Structures are given as structure tokens and as C-alpha cells.
Amino acid sequence: MPDQSVDCILTDPMYYKPLDMPELLRVCKGNIIAFGMPIYRYFVPDRVHHWIKPQSTKNVSKSIPEFVEEINVLLRGTYNGPSVTGMQWANYNGVYFDIIEGKKVHDFQKPLALIERLMMIYSNPGDIIFDPFAGSGTTLWAARGTGRNAIGCENDKIYYDAIMEKMR
After folding, report:
1. Is residue 117 pLDDT above 60, yes or no?
2. In 138-151, which positions are buried (b, 16+ CB within 10 angstroms) versus exposed (e)?
């Protein structure tokens, strides 16, 4: 991708694997938003929000499951307050309880409403949003619903096909 070619990156990378931050910083001229577990961060964030998952995967190991994910934000661009988004101040508290509605396509799928909210706060209509780990395509779908453009990458053909079907 060309330098500074996207306005915002909003993604849910594979946990515990390195994220190529120099490459993301090269292609993005705006905010970088990445979900992650509290014990692992890809970069030093300017803001940390939390998604409290009301549901979690079945606990089949001898450990307590994680019910909280961090949403790490590297501020490099847009921040839209309530006067711009039209959202109530409660949407800006940094702690979110959204649930996945409808059929779950991917084990690590995020709620559409949560992704839309983050997109409206940290990008502008017409912006190009990049998700290098598209998974179920929620970021791409949220971009469509909020008047943004999106680019997504997914290397699993099953998820890629599901994204293509959903976006038709």
C-alpha cells in the first residue's frame, strides 16, 4: 500500500503474535485502533478503552477466561465529540458492554455497534478505514453503515467467502 494511504486502522489482530507497527504507521495517516488482551499490547496507546464481553468462549482450560478486551488507540488524527457524531456522552465513557447480535461467523468477532461507535469517534465520513485482520468483516460492514470506505485483508478463505457474501 502507498504511504499515508488510509485515514484510520481499526483492527482485531491475532493475539500474542507481533504486529508490524512500522508498516501500519507507514500506510496510515490517522488513528490506529487495535483490540487486544490487557496482558498484551502492540503499541503504547494514547487512550485505552475496554470492552466487557457479556459472553465468552466456554472455559475448557484450567484458567479463568478473559472477559475484558482492551481497545488501544494511537491518536494521530480525528476525534469527533458528541456535537459531531450526535451520540450521547455515555458513548464516550471508554467502557463498552456491546453484544454480538445475529449469527456469529468468527470466534473473535466484535459487535457491529461497538465498531460503528469507534469508527464515528475516530474517523470521518468518506475516510478510508483499513482492517488488516478482517475476520468476519465487521469493520468493513461498519464502514459501509457509517459512510466510510474500507479495505480489508483476510487470509482464511472460509472467512473471506463469508465477508464477500455479507457485503453483496
Report:
1. yes
2. bbbbbbeebebebb
Domain layout of the chain by residue ranges: 8-58+66-167
Instruction: Count CB atoms within 10 A of the CB of residue 42.
Output: 20
Cα distance from N-terminal residue to C-terminal residue, the chain = 25
Just give the CATH number of 8-58+66-167.
Answer: 3.40.50.150
Q: What is the mean pLDDT of residues 120-138?
A: 96
Taking only the tens place, the pLDDT of each residue in 83-96 is 999 999 999 999 99
Higher per-residue pLDDT: 38 or 138: 138
Question: Residue by residue, what is the 3-state secondary structure of the chain?
Answer: CCCCCECEEEECCCCCCCCCHHHHHHHECCCEEEEECCCCCCCCCCEEEEEECCCCCCCCCCCCCCCEEEEEEECCCCCCCHHHHCCCHHHHCCEECCCCCCCCCCCCCCCHHHHHHHHHHHCCCCCEEEECCCCCCHHHHHHHHHCCEEEECCCCHHHHHHHHHHHC
In the chain, the amino acid numbered 25 is: L
Q: What is the pLDDT of residue 86?
A: 96
